[in-house]
Amino acid sequence: MKLRLVLFLSAASLLLYACSKKSSTDTASTLNPWDGKYRIEGTLTDAVNATYTNPGPKEYLLETASPAQIKLISKDLGIPGHVISIGGSLSYYSQFALIVNFDPATNKITSVSNSYGQPSANGRTAVLDPSGVNTWDPVTKNIKIKYWLDETGVAGHRGSFNETWFYIGAR
């Protein structure tokens, strides 16, 4: 009986210790400087369907994907993606979500790609528009970015995004 009690207490003690330890992915040191909650505002022009527009301010999570890379997660969708308005109703481009690459020395955005593949299974690709500011401000933590959605079978760029990502706080 005493042996069972000792084994039970030892197991419980080990379990409590394990539960109290944070994993290395939970520590702030693993997050890059761009990680956080953001409100995205800006414009969307769709060359195929003019009723596809920006739905107004929406909240997103920018999750660290690597030391110089973030992945855009829509709070509305709960998955990587970008919410759009189609004639006033909320929707999204399927299999299209940004991964953004930064130069940590300059805070410039160096490239974007589609987290579902470049191209995705339905032919969608993300491309950085070099005419944009494409940078992160370390004081405000806001991001200005301009990019395109290219799609197989569509001449030119299907979608053109010109956005400001306003930092809300840590996620």
Strand content: 35-45%
Report the helical percentage: 10-25%
The number of domains is 1
Structural class: mainly beta
**Major sheet size, sense and barrel closure:** 9 strands, antiparallel
The top level CATH class name: Mainly Beta
How many alpha or pi helices?
1
Round the Cα radius of gyration to an integer and report it.
21 Å
CATH topology: Lipocalin
Proper CATH architecture? Beta Barrel
Order of helices and strands: HEEEEEEEEEEEE
Low-confidence stretches: 1-28
Approximate shape:
globular
Number of DSSP strands?
12
The termini sit apart by 48 Å
- Overall residue-averaged pLDDT value: 87
What does it look like?
The chain has 171 residues and is mainly beta. It has a single domain (32-169), classed as Lipocalin, CATH 2.40.128. Helix content is 11%, strand content 44%. It contains one helix and twelve strands. It has one helix at residues 2-20, and strands at 36-46, 52-53, 58-66, 69-74, 83-86, 89-92, 98-103, 108-114, 124-128, 135-136, 143-151, 159-169. Strands 1, 3, 4, 7, 8, 9, 10, 11 and 12 form a nine-stranded antiparallel sheet that branches. Strand 7 (98-103) and strand 8 form a beta hairpin. The chain starts with a helix and ends with a strand. Mean pLDDT is 87; it is low at 1-28.
Brief account:
This protein has one helix spanning 2-20, and strands at 36-46, 52-53, 58-66, 69-74, 83-86, 89-92, 98-103, 108-114, 124-128, 135-136, 143-151, 159-169. The chain is mainly beta and 171 residues long. The longest helix is centred in the N-terminal third of the chain and has 19 residues, at 2-20.
